[in-house]
Amino acid sequence: MPPDVLDAGLMRKAVDTVLEDFLAGKTEFAGQPITAQLMGAFAEFMSGGKRIRPLLALTGWRAVGGERGNGSIVRVAASLEMFHAFALIHDDIMDDSDTRRGRPTIHRALSGIHGSDHSGQFGRSSAILLGDLAFTWADELLHTAGLTPVQYAALLPLITEMRTEVMLGQYLDLCATGELSDDVEATMTVNRYKTAKYTVERPLHIGAAMAGAGPEAMAACTAYAVPLGEAFQLRDDLLGVYGDVMDTGKSRLDDLRAGKNTTLVALALRASDAAQAARLRALIGDPFLEEAGAEEVRAVFAATGAREAVERLIDDRYQQALRALDTAPFAPEATATLENLARTATRRTS
Amino acid sequence: MPPDVLDAGLMRKAVDTVLEDFLAGKTEFAGQPITAQLMGAFAEFMSGGKRIRPLLALTGWRAVGGERGNGSIVRVAASLEMFHAFALIHDDIMDDSDTRRGRPTIHRALSGIHGSDHSGQFGRSSAILLGDLAFTWADELLHTAGLTPVQYAALLPLITEMRTEVMLGQYLDLCATGELSDDVEATMTVNRYKTAKYTVERPLHIGAAMAGAGPEAMAACTAYAVPLGEAFQLRDDLLGVYGDVMDTGKSRLDDLRAGKNTTLVALALRASDAAQAARLRALIGDPFLEEAGAEEVRAVFAATGAREAVERLIDDRYQQALRALDTAPFAPEATATLENLARTATRRTS
């Protein structure tokens, strides 16, 4: 009989309660009701989301023997979600995205507050600030988690690494955007830093380190997390082009219009003939691309075998992550949870 | 004979050395030389600046008995400067400013890296990221300062407060920008949070708290810092309209073009007749305002007595800050330094 998995519903509820209580204390500033609109938009934004990073942190904690119901790790996990809100808000400004989680992005939502000619700029500016506040609050959650000095010492370097990695990964992504290339390896480097380490490896590390994990357990986290995280991003790339907006909550034209040089695009370019490559270069990055053009891009992805190749890459990495779990020195229910998560993350439709 | 002042040159040098050494360790990421351009722009940016916040933190430390040559407080002071770099980079994006410290702003400088049609957007996006990195590095400097648990516990709530105050102060400023009003008190609220607390009170508090200051010393910091900080911002408002670009390093059209509702503007509107008010509303906030229009605005500031009124507000606050020092329980050389600083901050031309 397979071991029980950890109760993701319970873990999620614990994290959500911390976040809701925390935000409930942030409704007023210097007696200025005007900030209520900002907080309202943020609370709504925070109520969405899959909570992947907190769940991984809590699983990492339990994997190496952390006890159930510990308040500090839940608060650290909530801090990761708060940091992620910061990252998403700023990402959406950089990508100029209109929707996120099925709703207007924060900078679009906030542009409605200011009744001036500059509402677009006001929306972007206040979204930059709201992201900055979320970053500040991520720190506040961390510093009010009641960590021991030993936990602090283990945690802070990992937090700094995680933040630096996702930011520089995003910078590499930004540099590659709008300049299509068949450099598949370069796209995988971006995936590794921007997603694999940030979304999977570091949250696991952080939870495990909180519970006093040694080098062997930390290495096992990496062996599982990096391939899974790469697969997660590759699935995201596919969903960005093939996903159903009703499931993903975001337009499947955004990535193409932005000219994102994903692994999918790089593989297609590498396998294209001259005519196909020319069409890809004409269509991907066109800010006015419509569904008909997107269909043409998808046809090239099919004809070049790029879509299937990405599916294979995902499956390879999924298998690799499972193999890493075979030898990981983790508690059985954590291992079972990570197996489930690997399946969900690579086969999801949203 | 007046007591000696602290050696600001030495303090500044100590902070600069920490910042330079820190940034020297950040020249490469994941073997990607592309980030070198980002780091180059940042290092150049960091080499400017008056280092007001670090100097205040070091003075606060010495004021309540912290010993000379302590490495931890220098690193905390450097962390404040790093955080300030973050704040300036994001401010310049929000204000869409072209110059800072006599050079192109970071988002303008970075827009040159990317040879695409979207170089403006690339510049803004990478500047958002570089600001985020500076925020991360401010935390890293703090967490590698070798603080004791007692110092940590005293410091972290002050850091969180400081960050929240400047961000929400900036948000209030953003909301007021482009909507001219004669609400002088509202402009003073923005000054208090965005500048007085952030630039003067919190750095002093942070230094003093590091040295174990009690409530009386903390209250003395506030009594000195808030009026001085308000005066500092009022001087900044005047310099924004009357300053010499050779001294200030920034255009004296930016604030007017952006439609900043400063105390100066609010006072002028309050004292204007209908014709003057109409001219102010037509000119301030015009993104294409030229020097001739700015001269007309300055004429209204003179005719309404607004410019002189701001000078009087500055002087009142300067005197108030000095009186607070008379009874402050500070070491004599720190008091003398703060007296000097009050004079410089309120009478500066840059």
Q: How do the helices and strands line up, and which of them pair or pack?
A:
The structure is a homodimer of 350-residue chains.
Chain A: H1 8-24, H2 35-46, H3 52-63, H4 71-95, E1 99-100, E2 103-104, H5 106-111, H6 119-143, H7 149-176, H8 184-210, H9 215-242, H10 245-248, H11 254-258, H12 263-271, H13 274-283, H14 291-303, H15 306-327, H16 332-347
Antiparallel strand pairs in A: 1-2
The main sheet of chain A orders its strands as: 1-2
Number of helices of chain A: 16
CA-atom Rg of chain A in angstroms: 21 Å
Please give the number of β-strands of chain A: 2
> What is the H level of CATH, i.e. the homologous superfamily of chain A?
Farnesyl Diphosphate Synthase
Structural class of chain A: mainly alpha
**Ends apart, CA distance between termini of chain A:** 30 Å
CATH fold-type name of chain A: Farnesyl Diphosphate Synthase
Question: What features would you describe in this structure?
Answer:
Chain A has a two-stranded antiparallel ribbon. The first copy, chain A, is built from 16 helices and two strands. In chain A, α3 runs antiparallel to α16 (332-347), α7 (149-176) runs antiparallel to α8 and α15 (306-327) packs antiparallel against α16 (332-347). In chain A, 74% of the residues lie in helices and 1% in strands. The two termini of chain A are 30 Å apart. The first copy, chain A, is globular. The first copy, chain A, has a single domain, classed as Farnesyl Diphosphate Synthase (Orthogonal Bundle), CATH 1.10.600.
